[in-house]
Amino acid sequence: MIKSEARPARKYSRSSGLAMLFSLPGLLLLLSVVLAPLITGFYYSLTNSSLISSEPTKFVGLRNYKSDVFTSTFGDALKVSLQITFFSILTQLLAGYVIAKVLARSMKGTSFFVSVIMLPMLLTPVAIGMMWSLLLNPDIGAIKWLQSFVGLDINFLSSSGTAMSAIIFLEWWGHLPFVVLVLLAGILNLPKEIIESASIDGANWWQLNLRIIIPMLAPVIAVIVIIRSVNAFRMFDTIFVLTSGGPGNATVNLPFLAYKTAFTYFDTSRASAISVAIVAIVMPVYFIFLKMTKV
Amino acid sequence: MKTSILGKISGYILLISISIIIIFPVFYTLSTALKTNAEAQTFPPRLLNFSPTTENIKYLAGNADFYEAMKISLLVAVFTTLVVVFAATPLAYSLSRMNYPGKKLIVLLVTLVQVTPAIVLLVPLFAIVAKFGFYDKVITQVLILSALILPFATWILVAFVKSIPFELEEAAFVDGASRLQVIWHIIRPLLTPGIMTVAIFTLIGAWNEFLVPVIMSESKAKPVTVFITRFITEKSIDYGLLATACSFLFIPVLLFTIFAKRFIVGGLLAGSVKG
To answer: Kindly report the CA angle at B9 between B7 and B14, in degrees rounded to 5?
Structure first.
């Protein structure tokens, strides 16, 4: 299908004016909202620019990249970002696979359950975060009440480990639908003959899943991991309302660090240096995306 | 393969437990919206045995600030959807069917937006926006959000355009139709489900957006997502009012989802598996 798009050269030249017209609105948006700020941001990262100081902006070379942000907080924030990404995706794949396998059986009511499972993806993340902060309230929250049935009383937002697990849980909760739906589509597209003949040949449940189904799903799982990594890495809303990065800096991830530096400390130049570093970190994924893109 | 009775039972147990984990916070929000602040703060929480009140709904419905925030949310969502559809549809067609100078640059930029956290762009954009007097304006949010959603919309539409056999267009070209005639009479009708999908995702995405407005708005262009966070920064939180405001965000999306489910599932898969 893709090959058949090649057509006589005459068509290209005659329509390239039209093509440029077609791409113009999108291109203008991208130039003004993406390219211009990227260049400006890179420039800011080399200056002493700040939202509150009245000093004239001047060029300071790499000073921002050598500042204390990079010697201490940046590494911690990177670790938080990577932990959120790794643990939320791992648990989503595990839970998502089991759920998708059950949904693929097409039992009665599957369609209803698909609708329910879709919800988190559609509901306002910041509002969900607000509601969880009520649920996790250490004095009157419903989570305290639920814990009392099993004799626990953990105040999740008070210590760094449990605050991280709360953040990871919300990331898991919010994007589980995506993982379930894509895995479900992948499972439904698998060739049934192979699975059936393997089970006739006496493969047990573990062999069937680990040796046959999951390897066949590898390309789908790869796409999920790539798309989800990008999204989990940029998590912001929930952190903003649930922990504000706390306790201490325990849940400050890279986007939140950039936000705080720019809009709490008003330090545009350092925030820009952090941003440039974030772009450098996501570059490998960028190249993977470009490779996956076929137009 | 036939599923055994035991398999069915364990399957339902799994689906019901996951549904409870998903519905619980939503149910909690909607029920707390119907409680007075005092009743919302009882411990243990009253999940079902409370006396519902419409006090919060009446209060917020009559609150000028909240009304203004709802209006901003709606304006941003609707206009962002219009801009995204009008920019992404021709862009997707040109990317999948035409060759032209600048195409490579567009692909590079579109992909960059997909992988980069938006904050990277928003830090310098804030300075630019402030300098040119565009701070705290609806149009600013609309344009920024449109550019951020554009890549997702474009790839979904590229997948839809590619699913239209080129032979259809070719046959029309042979019959002497012009490129524009082909696009209008052949591509446009076949692309309608794709455009619907993009419109729905954009509408929901812009309605739910928080990062862009929290940076780009102060008072005049503050949507509901930013408005609700102001509840919690005050000394005391009114649980009932907060839950009501959150419900005002959820309910349109919930209602919308009921008729748009087909497009949402289809769009997700077009954007990931096919794309």
So the answer is: 95
**3-class DSSP state of A47:** strand
Per-residue pLDDT of A106-125, as tens digits, reads: 788 888 898 899 899 899 99
> Could you tell me if A69 and A201 lie in one domain?
yes
Same-domain pairing of A151 and A287: yes
Mark yes or no for CB contact A262/B272 under 8 Å.
Answer: no
Q: Which domain holds residue A123?
A: 63-292
Q: What is the ipTM of this complex?
A: 0.89
- Whether the per-residue pLDDT at A153 is higher than 50: the answer is yes
Question: Are A37 and A166 within one domain?
Answer: no
pLDDT of A4: 43
- Minimum distance, in Å, between the CA of residue A4 and any CA atom of chain B: 7
Same domain, A31 and A172: no
Number of domains in chain A: 2
Judge contact between B241 and B231, C-beta under 8 A.
Answer: yes
Q: Which of A30, A105, A196 sits opposite B110 (nearest CB)?
A: A30
* Structural domains of chain B sorted by starting position, each given as residue range(s) with its CATH number in brackets: 62-274 (1.10.3720.10)
Selecting from B19, B21, B106 the residue whose C-beta is nearest the C-beta of A23 gives B106
Which residues on chain B are in Cβ contact (under 8 Å) with A140? 41-43, 45
**pTM of the predicted model, to two decimals?**
0.90
Q: What mean pLDDT, rounded, does chain A reach?
A: 88
Domain harbouring A101, CATH code: 1.10.3720.10
